[in-house]
Amino acid sequence: MSDKKEYPEVIDIKSADDMPPMPVSLGSMRTNKTASWRSIRPVIIEEKCKLCMICWKYCPEPAIVPTCPPTIDYDYCKGCGICIEECPFDAIVSEKEGK
Amino acid sequence: MKKVLTGNFAAAYGAAAARVKIIPAYPITPQTTIVEIMSEIVADGLLDADFVKVESEHSALAACIGAQATGARTFTATSAQGLALMHEMLHWAARDRLPIVLANVNRAMAPGWSIWADVTDSIAQRDTGWMQMYCENNQEVFDTILMSYKIGENEDVLLPTLVNLDAFFLSHTSQIVDMYEQKKIDKFLPPYRPKLKLDVNDPRAFGALTSPEHYYEFSYKMQIAHQRAKEVIREVGKEFSETFGREYGLTENYRCDDAEIILVSYGTIAGTTKDAIDRMRDKGISVGLLKIRYFRPFPEKEVCQILGRAEKVGVIDRAVSFGHEGPFFSEIKASMYGSNVPLYGFITGLGGRDVSISNIESMVSHMQDNEPSNLIWIGVKK
Hints:
The structure holds 2 protein chains of 2 kinds. Chain A has 2 domains: 32 residues, no CATH class; 66 residues, 2-Layer Sandwich (Alpha-Beta Plaits), CATH 3.30.70. In chain A, 10% of the residues lie in helices and 14% in strands. Chain A contains 2 helices and 4 strands. A two-stranded antiparallel ribbon of chain A has the order 1-4. A two-stranded antiparallel sheet of chain A has the order 2-3. The termini of chain A are far apart. Chain B has a 6-stranded mixed beta sheet, sandwiched between helices. A 5-stranded mixed beta sheet of chain B has the order 4-5-7-6-12, with helices on both faces. Chain B has a two-stranded antiparallel sheet with strand order 1-8. By secondary structure, chain B is an alpha/beta fold.
């Protein structure tokens, strides 16, 4: 039996009573965003991108979405900067988060 | 149906009577026969369950966690170094609120390499969030395993339980155990049906990343669950008594009501202490026993009620918290804060050293003749 509706899909917690007993995602992991501590934001410059997808291969999360051109999923990107370092065409630049 | 069983057989038959579904286990002396019996019961088709052979105790508990998260009732058993290897997963099981039951045959930590009784292994797991209980005899082992599932699976609790039994004194010693009718057991302990579980048709992830915004509340809820568990332990103990005729609580009083001196102990030492008390009562010494069944949640209320009216209290520990004192003594002392009852902390029986009736009598005569002290070694060769 599913009790999915017992707790909200996106957790907006006012009190401990609203929470399930254990850290469980309600729905898939998609509802559990994990990028809150990112201090730098990688940004893809589309004109410079040659679609080599090296950034996608190197991203440890993986937060690079293999679209054409690639995009970054900022809900999960921790801002490690590996994509910026590995891009052979300097097509990804670092911006300070919260600017 | 009554049978003559060792503590290990009582643990295995208790788990089988609870109709566990998954048994991931790894052998270690003196627990090995629990694993052996469970594998035989499953292989003989006497229990509808899967026995999972794993490569270590860490993996055994990890497999329990995975299985329990899907809604299966699980059981495993271990001792000493094996429990220590499970340490990381003990935290995981408790914080994921999975009511797994683990039979731990209390064995001394190495080195020196020892297979004999000592509770340091389980005491070292104090803050993992598991409920911890200590058995005096094999009947209590069987009964406690049944009750632990019912207590742990209560929606207000959802916590795993470490059921502790002393190495050899229980694990390899035969006693009469009443195993009850399976029909009655099934009525007492219905199938495990958790509200939140792993289900491919309703995807969830357990134990996910938890930011400082939520982690604190999860810890708070664990503490609330432990506090509620005390009430649930009392209720389930009462229901057990109505069904099977044996009553259990967080503690047990033995000839405490009019006792001037009250001893506090747990596990098999509590049984020896009862005999010592009978002998001392015959000699006119007014002495009783408060047996602590649960170390976590700790029965502070019962401790204060019973011990508050004693003239002297002696705590008998089969472990020492190095650099401090006996672990149960510390809890009793903290619970008694503000009272003027003199407290004596005894250390005895480490590494399976026999604790005799005369040892217990010597503690009482020490209490009669000496000032209170937090750390008194009984029987140490000096």
